[in-house]
């Protein structure tokens, strides 16, 4: 891997076996960043995370069936951060409160418990940054992200300002297959940046292309965006997850 300004150097270890309802801070002096990855099935969001954390890519597709938590110590502009990366399974909707439950027979109720969905919603609402991943060769993949973003926005108070909302970033994965893409990607990029007011990047998890840039941009958004009340280093995601740890330099 070529070393660039936004490239990543990492060493990693994996801890399995426990359900995590809270995250332990590596140091009280570290600011915490909670980055939640969302996306359509087979969009490659898990591959992006694992490429960033471990520098590995698995060619065999395995659906994400439960949330996974990856923790990294990240250095950005001479500041040390504790980055918690949450990989959430593809869910067809965002539950807005405890009174609404999925109807029997819906995709969400077939695969996830209501407690899991509520935990995912809590993680989304308190995220520092939401990263929406879609497959640039699939119009259905981008439509999934579009619908999911709208549903998430509906979960927030209608009077909420941009300060109250999580930062959002859209990542178009599988750039290595861009020759087979029939999507108007320039139009998508313009719409995401101008209409959604979100950052937009394209990447390839297969070739580790622009993977570091996604996380670099996520940290930049937190540093340069408006401060949000309640988004502090003491919050912990209430989510069941397998934990993976690494140390990275952006």
Strand order of the largest sheet: 1-8-3-4-2-5-6-7
Average pLDDT figure: 75
The helix/strand order is EEHEEHHEHEHEHE
Helix content: 25-40%
Low-confidence spans:
1-27, 95-110, 227-241
Helices, by number, come to: 6
Number of strands: 8
Largest sheet: 8 strands, mixed
Q: What percentage of amino acids are in beta strands?
A: 15-25%
Structural class: alpha/beta
Molecular shape: globular
Backbone CA Rg: 17 Å
Termini Cα gap: 14 Å
InterPro entries: P-loop_NTPase, Ras-like_GTPase_Reg, Small_GTPase
Protein name: Ras-like protein family member 10A
GO molecular function, one term: GTP binding
Pfam families: Ras
Descriptive tags:
250 residues, alpha/beta, 8-stranded mixed sheet, 6 helices, 8 strands, 28% helix, GTPase activity, GTP binding, P-loop_NTPase, Ras-like_GTPase_Reg, Small_GTPase
Descriptive report:
This is Ras-like protein family member 10A. It holds the Pfam family Ras. One of its GO terms (molecular function) is GTP binding. InterPro entries: P-loop_NTPase, Ras-like_GTPase_Reg, Small_GTPase. The chain has helices spanning 45-54, 107-111, 114-125, 139-155, 185-195, 211-224; strands at 9-15, 31-39, 68-76, 79-87, 129-135, 167-173, 199-202, 242-249. With 250 residues, it is α/β, with parallel strands linked by helices. Strands 1-8-3-4-2-5-6-7 form an eight-stranded mixed β-sheet, sandwiched between helices. Strand 6, helix 5 and strand 7 form a beta-alpha-beta unit. Residues 1-27, 95-110 and 227-241 have low confidence and may be disordered.
């Amino acid at each position: 891997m070529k070393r660039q300004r936004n490239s990543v150097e990492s060493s990693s270890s994996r801890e399995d076996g426990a359900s995590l309802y809270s995250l332990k801070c590596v140091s009280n002096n570290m600011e915490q960043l909670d980055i939640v990855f969302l996306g359509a099935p087979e969009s490659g969001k898990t591959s992006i995370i694992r490429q960033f954390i471990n520098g590995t890519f698995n060619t065999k597709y395995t659906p994400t069936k439960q949330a996974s938590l990856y923790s990294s110590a990240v250095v950005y502009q001479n500041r040390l951060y504790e980055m918690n990366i949450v990989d959430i399974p593809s869910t067809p909707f965002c539950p807005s409160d405890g009174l609404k439950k999925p109807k029997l027979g819906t995709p969400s109720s077939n695969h996830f418990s209501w407690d899991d969905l509520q935990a995912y919603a809590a993680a989304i609402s308190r995220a520092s940054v939401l990263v929406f991943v879609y497959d640039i060769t699939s119009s259905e993949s981008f439509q999934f992200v579009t619908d999911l973003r709208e549903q998430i926005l509906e979960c927030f108070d209608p009077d909420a300002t941009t300060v109250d909302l999580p930062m959002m970033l859209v990542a178009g994965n599988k750039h290595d297959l861009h020759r087979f893409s029939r999507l108007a990607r320039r139009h998508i990029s313009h719409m995401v940046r101008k209409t959604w007011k979100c950052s937009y990047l394209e990447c390839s998890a297969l070739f580790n292309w622009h993977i570091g840039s996604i996380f670099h941009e996520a940290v930049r958004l937190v540093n340069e965006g408006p401060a949000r009340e309640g988004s502090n280093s003491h919050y912990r995601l209430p989510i069941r997850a397998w934990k993976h740890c690494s140390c990275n330099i952006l």
